[in-house]
Design a protein that fits this description.
The complex is a heterodimer of chains A (290) and B (369). Chain A is an alpha/beta fold and 290 residues long. Chain A has ten helices and 14 strands. Chain B has helices at 5-14, 28-38, 64-74, 145-155, 159-178, 224-231, 250-262, 279-290, 308-321, 337-347, 355-367; strands at 2-3, 22-25, 41-45, 58-61, 78-79, 82-83, 87-91, 97-106, 111-117, 132-136, 181-192, 195-198, 202-205, 235-238, 243-247, 267-272, 296-303, 328-334, 350-352. In chain B, strand 18, helix 10 (337-347) and strand 19 form a beta-alpha-beta unit. Chain B is elongated, with a radius of gyration of 26 Å. The chains are: A alpha/beta (290), B alpha+beta (369). At the A-B interface, helix 4, helix 5 and helix 8 of A face strand 8, strand 9, strand 11 and helix 7 of B.
Chain lengths: 290, 369
């Protein structure tokens, strides 16, 4: 089954003819992703390895069923591209770019919500249903099919955890990168909900980090709603207090956001927390034996 | 980017939010002249720290020579670890009541949020939750007048003062959205008779949106080394330990720091290298890391797009051409890792497959064992 992405998911690449866009389009195709079209304004009529390129998303949707789109678009233009995809009816939008202005991100999320579009990111590596469909920039070789669902706020750290799992013989069902920005689309709770329902997922690994309150909110949700085993890994135990936290930010969180606070919240929800990456497969082994 | 109080107040004035009469002084003479003109004043040092008052950076007087003396003492001095370059000289307000008013980004709600309290003046962290009004704003409709009336009602204010607060809130949101702010905060918002005045200004502009605000002043908060890294497209932060750390990605960088601490060490600095692996960029990155005189350098690369042999070649040629004065420990996995490790072994740099092994080794070297 997997979640969000399946064997037959048809994918559009916005910004396909650029340096990153073309490189990763080829990587995704190599992984088995069905890339059916690309969009690059002014390049309509061209092809990339036989994949047709269009000037606009609307033009691509006239010719193809598009289930999902991925943006390889510089941050200043990402809002326009995201709006274009949402208005064309794309249901899963993966936003790789980092440094998207937070007000643009809020505008994108508001529109996506009103149109029923799922947004992944911004500032994410993407997501993958292992062995079926990969939309993102993660190294192909680590994402082998299996029964562990992984959801992460951080990119390379997620590779690290998935790499540790793969080395220990645990494959993954679906791996979702939520994105590292303050305002992102999918959050831990959205993904946990889907993984709970997914028959292919036996256990869930959450990869979190200090700052914000996403892990605390997830812990509260897990307590009430998730029956499958969940384990967490948290980065940032040793990090010095953040520089960017203003007064108003601090009060929204109200003592949340610290490493200890997150561990406490997760433990209270029955979620064991690994402090070092290599502890994750050990915990999974223990959990699945029970 | 945080703005100084006086910059925030200049923007407030532009957006129709009342601020006290006053001016900025860079010399003690200017401070005296402003006091002469205004009368009873408050002299406030302009630094990006919230603890100015407690540190002695704020004073009251109605005497120009006292203002001269106080400003002279502040200007050029160090306060909360920062150098005071300007003071703001403003009319002293008669304070009947103090409110708190702010708009910021609520990441969980994915929306801007109004934060308001009738208990202003003190640190908002110390105000009990039940005394804070929180109202998320739907960006598709923006701030509408009815929302400001509701916020004022929840604050428990009526009459002309309530009307003024509502008007300020409307302008504050306009400023928040037009300037791509992450935070606009007035604390305290002072009620002085019939007048409502912003006695302080804390404004943070979204760094990622600065490209469309070329007209805003530029405030530099980073150290020279941090700025240099930023210009190179790297993210660099200085700490207090003796192990220099370089990794690719924010999360894995934090995880590396955690491991160093786990083994009893401490990082001197860290650099998030992103995807770059050229010789020139590596050389510049090493130069930055060495600026804190570390005892060891720990490199943690999980190569996805980045190819391990490129990383290895870059380090090998930097070592050969320029030399690296301290021991380097590298953890290298991912694309072309075998090739990469062989290149480094040939140059005499130790490599590891697991990050915890590499971290343990770096801590051991830094201890001098």
């Amino acid at each position: 089954m997997a979640i969000y992405l399946f064997d037959d998911t048809q994918v559009l690449v916005q910004g396909m003819t650029g340096n990153q866009g073309s490189f990763h389009t080829r990587q995704m195709v190599k992984y088995g992703t069905k890339i059916v079209a690309g969009v690059s304004p002014g390049k309509g009529g061209q092809e990339l390895d036989g994949i047709p390129v269009y000037d606009t998303v609307a033009a691509a949707t006239e010719k193809h069923r598009i289930d999902a789109s991925i943006l390889f678009i510089p941050a200043p233009f990402a809002k326009d591209a995201a709006f274009e995809a949402i208005e064309a009816g794309v249901k899963v939008l993966v936003m790789l770019p980092e440094h998207i202005p937070v007000q643009d991100a809020m505008a994108i999320m508001a529109l996506a919500k009103s149109r029923g579009t799922i947004v992944v990111g911004p500032n994410t590596f993407g997501l993958v249903s292992s062995g079926k469909c990969k939309i993102g920039i993660m190294p192909n070789q680590f994402f082998v099919p299996g029964n562990i669902g992984v959801v992460s706020r951080s990119g390379t750290l997620c590779y690290e955890i998935v790499g540790n799992l793969t080395a220990a013989g645990y494959g993954t069902s679906t791996v979702v990168g939520l994105g590292g920005d303050r305002v992102v689309g999918l959050n831990f709770i959205d993904v946990l909900k889907e993984m709970e329902k997914d028959p292919e997922t036996e256990a869930i690994v959450m990869v979190g980090e200090i700052g914000g309150s996403a892990e605390e909110e997830a812990a509260e949700f897990i307590k009430q709603n998730i029956k499958k085993p969940v384990i967490a890994y948290l980065a940032g135990k040793s990090a010095p207090p953040g520089k960017r936290m203003g007064h108003a930010g601090a009060i929204i969180e109200r003592g949340k956001g610290t490493f200890d606070g997150k561990v406490k919240a997760l433990n209270a929800a029955g979620v064991p927390v690994a402090e070092l990456p290599f502890q994750v497969p050990e915990m999974i082994a223990k959990t699945l034996k029970k | 980017m945080k703005l100084y109080e006086y910059m925030g107040k200049e923007l407030f004035a532009k957006y129709g939010i009342p601020v006290p009469e006053g001016g900025v002084a860079t010399t003690s003479e200017e401070a005296a002249a402003l006091t002469e003109k205004i009368g009873s004043v408050v002299v406030k040092s302009q630094i990006l720290s919230g603890k100015r008052g407690k540190a002695g950076g704020i004073g009251f007087t109605d005497n120009p020579s006292e203002a001269r003396e106080f400003a002279g003492k502040l200007l050029g001095s160090e306060l909360c670890g920062l150098i005071v370059e300007k003071v703001l000289v403003e009319k002293k307000l008669q304070i009947d009541k103090e409110f708190y008013l702010a708009i910021t980004v609520d990441g969980a709600a994915k929306k801007p949020v109004i934060l308001a309290s009738a208990q202003g003046g003190m640190d908002i962290e110390d105000v009990p939750e039940e005394h804070i009004v929180k109202m998320p704003i739907d960006v598709t409709i923006g701030m509408q007048p009815f929302m400001t009336r509701e916020a004022v009602r929840r604050l428990g204010v009526t009459g002309p003062v309530g009307k003024q607060i509502a008007a300020i809130l409307l302008n504050l949101y306009k400023m928040f959205s037009e300037l791509d702010a992450e935070l606009v905060e007035i604390n305290p918002l002072v009620i002085s008779g019939e007048d409502v005045i912003a006695a302080d200004a804390k404004v943070t502009i979204d760094d990622d949106a600065l490209f469309r605000h070329k007209d805003l002043p530029v405030v530099e908060e980073r150290t020279d080394a941090e700025k240099k890294a930023h210009d190179l497209g790297l993210s660099y932060v200085e700490l207090d330990g003796n192990i220099a750390v370089m990794a690719n990605g924010a999360g894995i960088t934090m995880a590396t720091l955690d491991l160093i601490q786990y083994y009893g060490g401490a990082a001197a600095n860290f650099l998030d290298a992103g995807g770059g692996a050229g010789e020139e960029q590596t050389a510049k990155a090493l130069e930055l890391l060495l600026s804190k005189n570390p005892k060891a350098i720990l490199i943690n690369i999980f190569g996805g797009i980045t190819r391990c042999d490129d990383v290895a070649n870059a380090f090998a040629s930097v070592k050969k051409n320029m030399g690296i004065p301290v021991p380097v420990v590298i953890r290298l996995v991912g694309t072309n890792e075998e090739k990469g490790r062989q290149i480094l072994r040939d140059t005499g740099i130790e490599t590891y497959e697991f990050m915890h092994e590499a971290a343990a080794k770096a801590v051991e070297i830094a201890r001098g064992n």
